[in-house]
Amino acid sequence: MTRLGSHVQLLLAVATVLILPLVMHSGSLASEVLIYALAVLGCNLLLGYTGLLSFGQGIFFGLGSYALGIALTRFDLPVLATLVLAVVVGAVAAMFVGWFAIRQRGTYFVMLTLAFSQMFYFLAYSLSDITGGDNGLLDIPRPALGLTGRPLLELSSPWQFYGFVAVCFVLVFWALLRLTNSVFGRTLLAIRDNEARAAAVGYDVKLFKLAAFAISGGVTALAGAFLALMTGIAPLSSIEYHTSEMILVMTVIGGTGNLFASVLGAAFYVLFADWLSTLWPRWLMLLGFLLIAVSLFMHRGIWGLGETIWLRLRGRPPIDPDDGSVATLGPVAPAAATGTTANTATATTRSEKRP
Amino acid sequence: MNRRHILKLGALSAIPGSLLAASRAWAQAKDPIQFAAPVPMSGAFAANGKYADLGMKLAIEQYGQVLDRPLAYTVLDTEGKPATAVRKVQEIAQQKGAKFWAGGILSSESLAMGKEAERAGGIFITTAGADEITGKDCNSATFRWSVPTFGAIEQTVRPLIESMPRAKRWYTITPQYVFGDGLLSAAKNIFKEKGIEHVGNSYHSLTEKEFSGYLTNALAAKPDVLLILNFGSQSSDTLRQAVSFGMKTNTTILVAWASGLEQFESLGADLCEGVYFGAQYWHGIDSPLNKDLVQRTQKAFKANPNYSLAGSYICTRIMIDAIAKAGTADPAAVIKVMEGMKYDGLTGPEEIRAQDHQVLKNYYLLKGKAKSAMKDKDDYADIVSSGQSFLPIDQTGCKI
Amino acid sequence: MNVYLLQVVNGIGIGMLYFLLAVGLSIIFGLLRFVNFSHGAFYLLGAYFCFQAVQWGLSFWLALLIVPLVVGACAWIIEKLVLRHVYAQPHEFHILITVGLALVVQEAVILVWGPLGDNVATPAALAGVVMWGDFIYPKYRLFVIGFTSVFAVVLWWILEGTRLGSAVRAGSESTEMVSLLGINVFRVFSLVFALGAATAALAGVLAAPIRGVEPFMGIEALGIAFVIVVVGGIVQSVMSTLWPEGARLMIYVAMAAVLLLRPHGLLGRG
After folding, report:
1. Is the pLDDT of residue C241 over 90?
2. Contacts (Cβ under 8 Å, ≥6 apart) of A310
């Protein structure tokens, strides 16, 4: 995959944020696109950049919702403070989960994140005095943004709210761009590609993974907080396994190669689900087929598809998805993540030409 | 044509009823009054959602128009998720100005939508069960047609105790959360009053499917009556497993919060025979409006109405009638009309209590019949008794 | 005393079904290193095919025999046509494609049989309960315990005592070596996947008279299977360092312990 300059990516993100109000009628839906884009960015940081497949993103998403909900309903904090609180809560929780989960590799890592996801769901359900249990946290207000007590910006209308989310989104996107292009980001990639080598070179792999978790958790929690602010509720379903699953699905659909692909994945899923559900109650079946198609033909997701088309139009040959060159940011079959058996399987499948 | 056929046809058809009704609306140049049915159309409660959609469709098509304006509706798939439900009703209130919402199958989504209705200046009427909907989370925009936990227990446990004076030992199986506790405490109050020995209770989680452990505990306590306080597929699983443990021979079983026809269909007559069920609605109710509904449903879908369909139908009708009475489609005025409104409902005369927006209606005690006694394929049960029981306003915790 | 006995027997009964579910998943993961999120879908299909067979008038016993074979055949085809192509891909694509498959199967079931759910009658020969003093237990559940035990022995024999089993076990150590020995590794892969799916389907058929059938039953099954496989895996890796020969035995001991002490699963409420 060609290296996509961060300037281009930032431009694309800003363009998206400006285009959405022009093509969409619903401020709530547009906000939801950006909210899930944030969550997918968090997931992509772990998956695409660190090679960690986490089924626990729902934990941080839900915790972000709860943190904001509790802060606004019980403590009446200003909105900006509650958002910061949500990010902190998400980061801390992610470090907690990550600390345990990174002790395992490959599938056991995935299973651990799944197990934690179930545990947090169980906690949220049981501690109903704090979380509202099955009913969720209700009556979350949407006060105006203010500084030192004076209201500056109303958030009550959907497009006002969208404007606020859009600004925060672009800021977070820019920050993540800087992060992934920094030495830190490149170290993560090195860990993703060959953990043993990164460790041998002297990087504290565990620390980097933990940091990636923290950032991912913070960003995902921010997304959850925005959703709670928009809908006025922090429901139990935000911390459910299904949320983790869908965030992961959006991440892979979009493509794990760069950050803007995550925005594409979220936008595609949210809009697709919303539109299809009005046409056919069995729309999940179409989603299922889409996932199968992406796994078979579109490994680099929608972004990869778009890139292939673009290159074809320009008369250039398509990119080999297994190009292992350093300049690529694509998901090369990570040797470290799948373990030796998969490598052997790869070797076998590649050489298979039996009569 | 049986129920499954309707569902299959509905599932296969790419055009939901709402689009058809809407197209008729657009054909006339007048500005239609927009309704919305926010119900789960995909996910674990898809069956309820499908029937709720049909119920609203029936009502909308029956009236066609009110106050010289055509009626139109949209079905919104909440996927059983409160945040999705809120976002979609937020949206439809803005996009189409749809201020009249009838739906919400799950309590969590209904509570959330009720709050949003107040914010959006709309009206939301639901059949969900949680007491808080017309209790501590009540508000001016939310109305509820179904009977909450107090009435459900009063109209099933009490009549059963009275008809079985020698059944003194009762065992309960309860889902561990607010709703389950509501049913349980209502039951315990009656136990105390009537001198019933509550020989044991088993709490379980909302996702439990294996009840054999609890049932073996129940068996050990040798109860006269097994009172099942969970609902939906959990109550079906509990009943099925209780019967497999031979509990029907020595114990009377009461499923206090059953869904009616849908549930009987999925269980089958053999399992349901001799079991008592509490229900919000039964197609066998002898009231003029219900007989009319049964006729209409037979004509439109060649089947009897079940609870989800009937509930959605009556909720939509209530709003349409209130709009007509108010002479305007302004939600605030319609709410005023709905408060205290009396009408001939599906369960007989019904009234919307002004102080908490709870519809006062009957709750039914049904008893499952033997297969050989069934007059037709839907005749699973007979109505044993019915009545209205509601907490007085000062005890509901509602302050509108 | 009797209540305790009842709880133990019941724990074993539930455990056997869960064991069936887990064993299929574990075989697939062990050999194919393939994270199969569609395992619950085959359980679902097993249950619904059984329901349909009984609707068509077939006896439950016939269904018990035929349905797992049918589902196994479907799984074979799916593996050959679809799943095989992602083996070489990173894990996320295994998960993605099987999640997609599970969704397709679930919605297809709703399309064919409706979203309501249904009942499968216990076969007449096994209806009713066994009574032994105060000990009351459904005959059908006792049958499930017995049948699954026999099946477990048969499976063990296949894996330990036959050439196919040796190929499967060797393959989980090194597919390269196995293919160098002249065995068509791909056919083994397909067979293993089909076997895993057939086992899940068998669990579905057995579960149908106990739980009924409904389109979302696959989700719960998948969760349970994963927990047990993981617990088993952890126990195995621990035991491999302590007592290698007994490692496999200890998986089952641990699983039994888990099921007895926490019959609602590690994470469920007691």
Report:
1. no
2. none
**B386 φψ region: left (φ > 0), alpha (ψ -120 to 50), beta (else):** beta
Q: Which residue of C has its CA nearest to B221?
A: C3
DSSP characters over A75-87: I---HHHHHHHHH
Indicate whether B161 and B186 sit together in one domain. Answer: yes
Given the DSSP bridges, would you call strands B142-144 and B169-175 parallel, antiparallel or unpaired? unpaired
Residue C234: φ, ψ to 5°: -65, -45
Choose the closest CB to B11 out of A158, A236, A282: A282
Query: Could you tell me the residue range of the domain that residue A170 belongs to?
Result: 25-339
Q: How far is B297 from chain C (nearest CA, A)?
A: 19
Residues of B with CB under 8 A from a CB of A: 10-11, 14, 16, 41-42, 46, 49-50, 74-77, 79-83, 86-88, 90-91, 94-95, 107-108, 111-112, 115-116, 119, 130, 132, 137, 177-179, 205-206
Q: Model confidence over C147-205: pLDDT tens digits? A: 998 998 888 788 777 877 777 667 666 667 777 777 777 888 888 899 999 999 999 99
Residue C14 CA to residue C141 CA, distance in Å, equals 8
Residues of chain A where predicted confidence (pLDDT) is lower than 50:
1-2, 323-355
Same-domain status, B136 and B154: no
* Fold annotation for C2-261: ABC transporter involved in vitamin B12 uptake, BtuC (1.10.3470)
Exposed/middle/buried for A7, CB within 10 Å: 0-12, 13-18, 19+? exposed
Q: What is the DSSP letter of B139?
A: -
The tens digit of pLDDT for each residue in B298-356 reads 999 999 999 999 999 999 999 999 999 999 999 999 999 999 999 999 999 999 999 99
> Is there a single domain that holds both residue B253 and residue B391?
yes
Predicted TM-score (pTM) above 0.80: yes
Best probe of the B interface among A241, A278, A279, by most B CBs < 10 A, is A278
Mutation pick from C51, C104, C109, C116 vs chain B, by most beta carbons of B within 10 Å, is C116
- The SS3 call for residue A9 is helix
- Is residue A2 one of the residues assigned to a domain? no
Q: Is the CB of C103 less than 8 angstroms away from the CB of A337?
A: no
* A355 is a domain residue: no
**Partner-chain contact B42 A135, CB within 8 Å:** no
How many whole angstroms separate alpha carbon C169 and alpha carbon C180?
A: 15
Q: Is B15 in the same domain as B117?
A: yes
* Secondary element (H or E) of residue A98: helix A79-101
Domain match, B72 and B18 both: yes
For residue A74, CA distances in Å to A67, A141, B321 come to 10, 11, 41
Asked if A32's CB is within 8 angstroms of B77's CB, the reply is no
Q: Are B268 and B376 within one domain?
A: yes
Cβ-proximal residues to A71 (8 Å cutoff; 6+ apart), any chain: A77, A81, A82, A85, A86
Q: How many C-beta neighbours within 10 Å does residue A121 have?
A: 24
Predicted ipTM > 0.90: no
Residue A94 domain-assigned? yes
* E strands, C135-235, in order: 135-138
**Domain with B24 in it:** 3-148+285-360
Quick one: B276 and B143 in the same domain?
A: no
Stated as kind and residue range, the H or E segment containing C69 is: helix C60-81
In a domain, A17, yes or no: no
Distance from CA of A83 to the nearest CA of B (A): 18
- DSSP-derived secondary structure for B287-323: -HHHHHHHHHHHHHHSS---HHHHHHHHHHHHHHHHH
Indicate the number of domains in chain A: 1
Return the residue of B nearest to A122 by Cα.
B205
Pair B82, B185 in one domain:
no
B306: CATH = 3.40.50.2300
